[in-house]
Design goal:
- The protein is an alpha+beta fold.
- It has one domain.
- About 45% of the residues lie in helices and about 15% in strands.
- It contains 9 helices and 7 strands, in the order αααββααβααββαββα.
- The protein has a 4-stranded mixed beta sheet, with no helix packed on it. The protein has a 3-stranded antiparallel beta sheet with strand order 3-7-6, with helices on one face.
- A hairpin with a 6-residue loop joins β4 and β5.
- The longest helix is centred in the middle third of the chain and has 20 residues.
- It is globular.
């Protein structure tokens, strides 16, 4: 109950509601009256490993991110889901991160979505390696990769398989599977349609689920590398005049 109360207090009153039209402002103002009821609802859903259908639907709204305002690629789609579901997501995310960190499961190359890691540690790690290489008289070839629409392209069944591999089992795995599958979305001018792939953009769980999905891929890459959220840097040291970053290797 204390966790739910804390989550209610942290709600931003200006947060847009989902299709159920229950606003964060109402939940925050009535937190003392709702904390017991919401705690029971959350506990029941986690024990059942399920979600109510009203919590797996989303209104999609475009958020301007820069560039030409007349171009669709200048906007980032965000899923407006139930605020109550976002609360449960946030609580579940905390438990998942604790499980991953306590068991040392995240790849050491990933600096995003992790406690004690940041964009700064990502840059310092790569700069340290590059500086040492230059001091040794070596050159460095680097490739920067940005995963475009990363959350939209995560295969749901494969993600569930990887969750199981990382020790996420039981009711939590069932709940996450229910969270991922059978989702529906719409925008202001369209009808409801089922989402067959990806994780909800703008959700609390989306980033950590993406981290889990790509986690084992980082260890398979033969290049030196670091990753921050959806951006990957690959590099290889070489003697001046030689090139190791051949097209075939990069692929």
């Amino acid at each position: 109950m204390d966790t739910v109360r804390k989550t209610l207090k942290q709600l931003q009153p200006t947060k847009s509601p989902g299709p159920d039209d229950i606003s964060a402002k109402v939940l925050n103002e009535l937190k003392d009256q709702l904390v017991s009821l919401l705690s029971k609802i959350f506990e029941s859903l986690m024990e059942a490993g399920a979600l109510t259908t009203e919590w797996v639907i989303a209104n999609i709204t475009p958020i301007y991110k820069g560039g030409e305002r007349t171009s669709p690629i200048s906007f980032r789609p965000v899923s407006l889901t139930s605020i109550c579901c976002k609360m449960l997501e946030k609580i579940s995310k905390t438990e998942m991160i604790r499980h991953l960190e306590e068991n040392n499961l995240p790849s050491s190359y990933q600096h995003g979505f992790r406690s004690g890691q940041s964009c700064l540690t990502n840059l310092l790690s790569s700069m340290e390696c590059w500086t040492k290489s230059l001091e040794m008289g070596l050159s460095v070839d680097a490739v920067y990769i940005d995963f475009s629409k990363a959350l939209d392209k995560v295969p749901q069944r494969r993600l569930i398989f990887k969750l199981r591999q990382m020790g996420v089992t039981g009711n939590l795995l069932k709940w996450l599977a229910d969270f991922l599958t059978g989702r529906r979305k719409r925008d202001a001018k369209s009808h409801w349609e089922t989402v067959h792939t990806g994780v909800p953009p703008g959700s609390f769980l989306g980033p950590i689920l993406f981290l889990i999905y790509v986690n084992d891929c980082l260890d398979c890459l033969t290049f030196e590398k670091v990753m921050f959220t959806y951006e990957l840097m690959l590099w290889r040291k070489r003697l001046p005049g030689l090139s190791d970053m051949r097209e075939g290797n990069v692929r």
